[in-house]
């Protein structure tokens, strides 16, 4: 007798949205007077610019105090450090004003991914349409052949598409969720169920719609210690018992958003070029802008919750849940574009 295949329901994403809201609640909140200032866009960027200057100046001062002979022993390096500092400051101030004007006038309305446009682009190069590429990408991402050294173009292109879709978050709606979460802590306002619905149907509506066309489910993962700037999400593909290829595995793709052209905060992250000691986490030094998005500022905080730790815990729980449902292993991929690619490397190293 032929064995009947059991068709599973979609995995409930509510649990992972709760993990995400928990991550959101950890983002440091400014004092009330600073909160009122940052609601005015130009004042917000000015405050961020001043904070950036303070961080850069502190680094230079610390470098000098650590080695008072630095200007004499390494005059070229010292001069380059000072010159770089002033050049960055001179560039960023007018950039901050220009970006705010562009946002106000809605001059840059970037849409990183539209299937029709990408189909025209791939057709012009004699390639297959996006859905076909995604189907082939699925096979490669799910493969249990871990030792293949063959470069798979469909796999890479699928990761590129998902890295583009991650930009589709609605920042204005996210800010509203963040404010409601603060109210919710005082036992008022919306229930967590309502907040989850708003996250799914408003903040991440664009991402959810586009990835479902490609056969993935999406859940947000972490805001990386800041609001409406960088963040990470998970694309999930669960092996179904009714699928023909029973050798394939489940898939989790962790994708990091990169620099949005008009987001000044993300520009500052790019330009925060000092090195930070990350030996407690990745055995070396890394770009300070990247470090601050993942790890605690002091060693005393390492036992507490921080973005990288929460992300690993959530990914592990998603993988465990998938394995429990169908007994298949879970392939985990990490990707990102631009600044997101740099964050992906740091997270993978962790």
From TrEMBL:
SUPFAM superfamilies assigned to the protein according to its UniProt record, in alphabetical order: alpha/beta-Hydrolases
One Pfam family per UniProt: Lipase_3
TM regions (residue ranges): 78-99
Keyword Disulfide bond among UniProt keywords: no
Domain (Fungal lipase-type): residue spans on this chain: 253-347
Coiled coil feature spans: none
InterPro entries for the chain: AB_hydrolase_fold (IPR029058), Fungal_lipase-type (IPR002921), Sec_MonoDiacylglyc_Lipase (IPR051218)
UniProt GO BP: lipid metabolic process
UniProtKB keywords: Membrane, Transmembrane, Transmembrane helix
Claim: Cell inner membrane is one of the keywords in the record: no
Protein name: Fungal lipase-type domain-containing protein
């Amino acid at each position: 007798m032929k064995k009947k295949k059991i068709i599973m329901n979609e995995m409930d994403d509510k649990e992972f949205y709760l993990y995400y809201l928990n991550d959101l609640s950890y983002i440091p909140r400014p004092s009330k007077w600073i909160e009122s200032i940052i609601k005015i866009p130009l004042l917000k960027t000015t405050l961020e610019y001043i904070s950036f200057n303070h961080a850069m100046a502190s680094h230079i001062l610390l470098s000098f105090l650590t080695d008072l002979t630095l200007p004499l022993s390494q005059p070229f390096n010292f001069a380059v450090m000072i010159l770089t500092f002033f050049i960055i400051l001179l560039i960023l101030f007018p950039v901050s004003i220009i970006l705010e004007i562009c946002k106000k006038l809605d001059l840059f309305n970037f849409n990183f991914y539209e299937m029709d446009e990408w189909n025209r682009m791939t057709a012009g190069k004699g390639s297959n349409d996006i859905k076909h590429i995604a189907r082939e990408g699925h096979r490669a991402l799910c493969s249990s052949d871990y030792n293949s050294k063959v470069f798979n173009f469909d796999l890479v292109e699928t990761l590129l598409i998902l890295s583009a879709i991650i930009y589709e978050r609605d920042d204005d709606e996210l800010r509203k969720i963040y404010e409601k979460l603060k109210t919710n802590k005082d036992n008022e306002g919306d229930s967590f169920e309502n907040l989850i619905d708003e996250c799914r149907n408003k903040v991440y509506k664009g991402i959810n719609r586009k990835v479902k066309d490609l056969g993935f489910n999406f859940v947000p993962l972490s805001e990386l210690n800041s609001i409406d700037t960088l963040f990470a999400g998970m694309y999930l593909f669960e092996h179904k018992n009714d699928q023909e290829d029973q050798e394939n595995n489940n898939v989790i793709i962790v994708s990091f958003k990169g620099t949005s052209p008009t987001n000044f905060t993300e520009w500052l992250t790019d330009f925060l070029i000092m090195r930070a000691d990350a030996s407690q986490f990745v055995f070396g030094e890394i770009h300070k802008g990247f470090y601050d998005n993942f790890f605690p500022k002091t060693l005393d905080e390492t036992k507490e919750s921080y973005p990288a730790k929460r992300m690993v815990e959530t990914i592990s729980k998603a993988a465990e849940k998938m394995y429990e449902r169908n007994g298949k292993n879970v392939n985990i991929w990490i990707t990102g574009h631009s600044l997101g690619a740099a964050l992906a490397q740091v997270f993978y190293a962790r």
